[in-house]
Specification:
With 241 residues, this protein is α/β, with parallel strands linked by helices. The protein is built from 5 helices and 9 strands; from the N terminus they run H-H-H-H-E-E-H-E-E-E-E-E-E-E. The chain has one domain. A hairpin with a 2-residue loop joins strand 1 and strand 2.
Length: 241
C-alpha cells in the first residue's frame, strides 16, 4: 500500500494536529542538539560525591591529618574527573548523620568537626591531583571545611567561599586564595607557598608555620605563640617576617 492511501486506495489527509506534533518534536530535538553541552560530566560529579560520602562516614579512628589525607588521596585516585567536575561537586558534598553532630567521637572532637576535616582533606587530595596537571582550579564549597588547600605544592587553588580551621595546612608551594574568611590556625605547618585570605582570620594564625607567606586583607584575631618562621602580612603591614 502506498503511503498516504487508505484501505481502498483513496488518498488520506494527515491530520493537522499530527503534523504539528511532528514538527514540534523535530523542533525540540534540534534545540536539544544545538544547546551548549555542560562543561562537566554528571557521572564524574556523582562519583566524587559518592566517595566523599564514604569518607565522611568512615575514618573515625584516624586522628592524624596526614593519614586522613592518604585516605582522601586513595579515594581521589579511584575516579576520573576534571577541574569542572570538581568545581560542581565541591558545592554538593554531603555531611552525614546530622542528628549526631554534637556526638564526641574522636580526640575530643564532635562528629561534625571530624566530618569537616575529612571532607576538607578529601577535597584537598582531589585538588592536588588536578593541580599536578593544571595551573589553576576553582572550588565553590557549601560549607566551612577544615584543612582546605592542604598539601598544595604547585599551581593556584581559588576557594570561592569561607573556610574552616587549618586553611593551607602543610602547604609546600603554590598559591591558595580564599575569597572569604578563614577560621583558626590558618597556615598551620606550612613551609612554602602563599596563602591569601581576602576576608578575616581567626586565632592562632601561623600555627607551627615554618615558611611561606600569609596575606590577609581583614583582621587577624591572634598569631600563634608557636609561630616559627615565614611572612605574615595584614593589609600593607608586615606582622612577621
Amino acid at each position: 500500500m502506498n503511503r498516504g492511501l487508505g484501505k481502498f486506495g483513496l488518498k488520506m489527509k494527515i491530520p493537522r494536529s499530527f503534523r504539528m506534533k511532528k514538527n514540534l518534536d523535530e523542533h525540540i530535538r534540534k534545540l536539544l542538539e544545538d544547546r551548549p553541552k555542560p562543561d562537566y560530566d554528571p557521572l564524574a560529579v556523582k562519583a566524587i560525591i559518592d566517595n566523599g560520602r564514604k569518607f565522611s562516614e568512615e575514618d573515625r579512628n584516624t586522628i592524624f591529618f596526614d593519614q586522613k589525607y592518604l585516605v582522601g588521596t586513595k579515594l581521589a585516585n579511584e575516579i576520573s574527573y576534571t577541574k569542572e567536575d570538581l568545581r560542581i561537586a565541591s558545592g554538593n558534598l554531603e555531611l552525614k548523620y546530622l542528628d549526631k553532630y554534637n556526638e564526641v567521637v574522636q580526640n575530643c572532637m564532635t562528629y561534625l568537626q571530624v566530618a569537616e576535616y575529612n571532607l576538607g582533606l578529601y577535597l584537598s587530595a582531589l585538588t592536588n591531583k588536578i593541580l599536578a596537571k593544571e595551573e589553576i582550579i576553582v572550588l565553590e564549597p557549601n560549607f566551612l571545611y577544615g584543612c582546605m588547600g592542604a598539601y598544595v605544592e604547585k599551581g593556584t587553588l581559588i576557594i570561592d567561599f569561607d573556610v574552616g580551621n587549618n586553611a593551607g595546612f602543610c602547604m609546600l608551594g603554590g598559591n591558595v586564595i580564599v575569597r572569604g574568611n578563614a577560621d583558626d590556625s590558618a597556615g598551620c605547618n606550612m613551609t612554602d607557598g602563599e596563602l591569601i585570605i581576602e576576608g578575616c582570620l581567626g586565632n592562632n594564625t601561623g600555627t607551627s608555620m615554618e615558611g611561606g607567606i600569609i596575606r590577609v586583607s581583614g583582621n587577624i584575631k591572634s598569631i600563634a605563640s608557636n609561630y616559627k618562621n615565614g611572612i605574615i602580612i595584614q593589609g600593607e603591614e608586615f606582622l612577621r617576617e
